[in-house]
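Hey, resending since the last one bounced:
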Amino acid sequence: MLSFDFIDDLRRMNLRQYFYQLLNFAMIVSSALMIWKGLMVVTGSESPIVVVLSGSMEPAFHRGDLLLLTNHEQEPIRAGEIVVFKVDGRDIPIVHRVIKVHEKDDGSVKFLTKGDNNNVDDRGLYADGQAWLTRKDVVGRARGFVPLVGVVTIIMNDYPKVKYAVLAGLGLFVLVHRE
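The structure tokens again:
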């Protein structure tokens, strides 16, 4: 049977306890943000952790795998590397392998990507008129992964009600839990 003991806990709290719990919640959120920003500085990537959202990189990575990224400018991009990139007009980054690299005498580099499980290269995914990616398109390079941890993220994105229920439950837990 469903128990609503937390309602009794809420009734017994005074204003000071409410404020204390609200500050605890704010501290948790700000700590998570600081950790994320710290990872951004250490890895050089605007998104140091991404979830693989499709099966285009199977068998290397599966849908739901969590990728750990770095994006240090001084490291050259090489064929065979797995990069995460964003193209104009698309909000979601793409995880694919570099298959061709063109380095010019002026130091500029252009490269072409393809998903391991795809039959053709990614030129159809790039922005209109774009045939190659450049360094500015790269979000990061895969340096490690944790299998299937990102499935939770996929479920929350596919079913927004689940996401809101989990967030509401966590928020309520932090506000009511006194320890």
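The chain is about 35% helix and 20% strand.

Sorry for the duplicate.
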